[in-house]
Specification:
heterodimer, A: 414 residues, globular, B: 139 residues, alpha+beta, two-stranded antiparallel sheet
């Protein structure tokens, strides 16, 4: 029997909604059968907690007296530069920004001890942050310099705005070369001595609604320990990829853009991260509720790790060269067993996405809904699906022709 | 017969000397090299597990100290900060002894200090600075 989001919300208000996590539903549907389970269960909660590089936050810092125009000037938070190409006291700080004086990879592999992700974690944790700025002066903004302590509570707005989170499936990284490599997938030992993966698998939001039937702009979610919303598809959203019969993509596919006020988030679920030899980023907790509107939606949430496949990619060659090429296909059940077999070799695996934390998020979201504190939303627009024509393409470079005068000049040289 | 795990640090002028050989030959110690970082012209670091009689072990350590080799006992070398750890498991596939390990299927990470040889491979592998070397303890 089909349900509506309004009906589910009425049950949530009466604290009668039946909510289970994407892990619990597997066993429940096995016992009761999908038809009965779909009738009984109202919401399945998902979760993921992993580094997501295209994350950041915008802030309105409040006007100084006299005023300063940070727009077009230079702003740092604890030495980490923010983007200022906005109005006078609005700035955007990205998770991968690092201080100018950070040696980066000039001493290889760089440590990248502190960056934008760490600043955001510190702000959410209530810490004082040093805000330094220089600006050009105007008649209406006469001040040139600013150096002050600031906290999250001091800001007018502090909003997490992530343009790409929650990758639906991801590569498994290995290193076929004979030297250690340092990547955003962690440290990869030579000759395939380890493999890393990054997905919550059967708990991951987009793997539980593979064709994005219930997820889209306006969907209310768990974000960083607070409540946030889905903005729409994230950058590099790429729905039209090879999929299994259950609709689950066999490689990276959909992504989400998400937003929410930092002021109600927790430093437990927003964590700055340093990838040796690569850079800084931020790990974020996201949980998406899936309304069980019909039996098919329920069946999708019953997906197990053994039914989700991922591609093994060589990060010493095919990834950096941007050459397509999978050297093997494995399931998340295999990845989570601790070892996979690639090209006949047994390779130990480890994750970058925390399954323990993903599960905790799914349980927190479940309790919020059960307690009548979190209601579901009908998306204004669902995320573009397989037949949308949306495709992710590489950059097509075109040669820059030298200006006519320059080419004449060089042509005249002996 | 006792067993000790030591971190030996060599000044740059000593990296070309066969010190391990002396430990074996003169003091009848069984030396198992766990990790070696030696670059010509620079100081070197050797992590070893040494076993033998208490008397020989003490004499061997004395011999090293007299030569100017820094000797640090690995007792509690590596510290795992449970509250900082997000249990992503990134460290577990590169830990050579299984000191950092995962329980399955719940995917919880744990650290067994007794198995740790303080090779420090896990430290750069942790994105959250959840693993650190404890302050130096005298050998």
């Amino acid at each position: 029997m089909a349900k509506t989001i309004e009906e589910i919300n009425e049950k949530i208000a009466r604290k009668e909604a039946v909510v289970v996590t994407a892990e619990e539903i597997i066993e429940l549907a096995r016992k009761k059968g999908p038809k009965k389970a779909a009738a009984e269960v109202d919401v399945v909660t998902t979760g993921t907690f992993a580094p997501m590089c295209s994350s950041g936050a915008y802030f309105n810092l409040g006007h100084t007296r006299p005023r300063i125009k940070l727009g077009g000037g230079r702003v740092t938070f604890n030495g980490v530069p923010a983007y200022t190409g906005l109005a006078a006291v609005d700035v955007f700080l990205g998770a991968t920004a690092v201080p100018d004086e950070d040696p980066r990879n000039s001493i290889h592999p760089g440590r990248f001890a502190y960056g934008g992700g760490h600043v955001i974690e510190d702000l959410v944790g209530g810490k004082d942050i040093r805000l330094s700025a220089t600006a050009y002066t105007t008649d209406c903004y006469p001040r040139q310099k600013l150096d002050t302590w600031i906290r999250l509570v001091d800001m007018n707005e502090a909003v997490l705005f992530n343009i790409r989170n929650c990758y639906q499936n991801y590569n498994v990284a290995v290193n076929l070369s004979d030297r250690v490599i340092y990547t955003y997938m962690g440290i990869l030992q030579p000759k395939m001595r380890n493999a890393t993966f990054c997905s919550a698998g059967q708990l991951s939001p987009l793997l539980n609604d593979p064709l994005y039937r219930t997820i889209g702009m306006g969907t209310r979610i768990f974000l960083g320990g607070g409540i946030g919303h889905i903005v729409g598809p994230g950058t590099q959203h790429n729905p039209d990829v090879p999929r299994s019969e259950n609709g689950v993509p066999r490689c990276g596919a959909g992504t989400l853009s998400v937003t929410g006020s930092l002021k109600q988030m927790s430093a437990n679920w927003i964590r700055g991260a340093s990838f040796t030899g690569y850079g800084t980023t931020m790990a974020i907790g996201v949980g998406v509720p899936i309304p069980i509107l019909d039996e098919q939606i329920l069946l999708n949430t019953c997906v197990t790790d053994s039914e989700i496949h991922a591609q093994v990619v060589d990060y010493s060659s095919s990834y950096p060269e941007n050459v397509l090429g999978s050297i093997g296909e494995v399931t998340y059940a295999e990845l989570k067993s601790g070892a996979i077999t690639v090209k006949g070799k047994k390779v130990p695996t480890s994750g970058l996405s925390s399954y323990v934390r993903a599960k905790e998020i799914a349980h927190i979201l479940k309790s919020w809904i059960e307690e009548g504190r979190f209601f579901l939303t009908q998306p204004v627009e669902t995320v573009p699906s397989v037949d949308s024509g949306v495709r992710f393409k590489p950059l097509s470079e075109r040669p820059i022709e030298p200006p006519a005068s320059a080419s004449q000049k060089s042509g005249g040289l002996p | 017969m006792i067993k000790k795990r030591l971190v030996l640090t060599f000044p740059s002028n000593m990296v070309d000397q066969p010190i391990t050989y002396q430990l074996v030959k003169k003091y009848e110690l069984i030396v198992n090299i766990l990790r070696a970082q030696i670059t010509p012209q620079e100081s070197g670091k050797l992590t070893v597990e040494v076993s033998g009689s208490r008397k020989n072990l003490d004499r061997g350590v004395e011999f090293l100290s007299l030569l100017g080799v820094g000797v640090r006992l690995i007792a509690q070398g590596v510290q795992w900060h449970e509250t900082r750890c997000i249990e992503c498991t990134a460290c577990t596939s590169i830990c050579p002894t299984g000191a950092l390990s995962v329980s399955r299927p719940d995917m919880r990470v744990s650290f067994d200090k007794a198995k740790c040889i303080a090779c420090e491979i896990c430290i750069p592998a942790c994105p959250y600075a959840a693993i650190e070397i404890e302050p130096e303890t005298a050998g």
